[in-house]
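Troubleshooting: if your tokenizer reports a length mismatch, compare your output against this known-good record of 297 residues.
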Amino acid sequence: MKNVIILYGGDSVESEISLQSAQGIIKNIDQTKFSATMQDIKDFDVKSINKEALIFIAVHGKDGEDGNTQKLLSKNNIKFTGSDEISTKKCWDKISSKILMVENQIPTPEFQVISTNQKLDLKDEFFIKNNSFFVKPNNNGSSFGVSKVDHKKNLEEAVKEARKYSKDVIIEKAYNSAEYTVGILKGEALQPLEIIAEDKDGFYDYEAKYLSKGTKKVEVVDKTIKKQLKNIALKAFYKHGCQTWGRVDFVYDGKDLGVLEINTVPGFTEKSLFPLAAKMSGINYQELITNIIEDSL
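Known-good structure output:
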């Protein structure tokens, strides 16, 4: 029986969601195949780990998706779930990821980088030709520090909010028609989902993700958009060098799709987007856990 250590928590703003993910995994893991325990990453000592064990990384955000844990485990020849250090770093750093997507002709919303101490120049062509924006930290998750800005006079305040989480800030042209997400599992794209926030003028922020009961997550039925979503998601996932599992998030402006980001350790509670997409693809929660573990061995 394989020993699995579910790593969760940490000091990230996403630690509570990470705990919920870990609890879902240990509750539903196939106990005929795996012997599982949970461990908070704050108490994790790599030297005390049996090198035959597999680490299921359920740490969201800092330490789970920035490549640090992957680097530590690889250095000590300990197997773990998901993508390696290099690919997680590429996805975690939004600026690096955006540049990679542009270089590889992967559609993504037009953007502007506001570096540390750099001031906004609203006379720049990017701000002149666009009217609606998303302002976000360069590296963070669960939409912390993200603002939707429909009036340019509010951009300064949004940049200030984003800098609470990251020194460098990225400003994207807003695509306001729809939001989609595509899970990737073992080289296959799962059923794409459309995310419909309860507030029609809002977006899929922290409240919509974890607190609102009105957020809808529905199957994409349009065959053309579904095919495009799957194809682009797979290209984005593999151009970043990702492995085993992850989630690619999209926006749509009524004409074009754009990749927002790749999540290498997406939310994994029973109600999270990735398990829901798997369920709609015919893979239940326990089977999903088994698939991820076995593909990582």
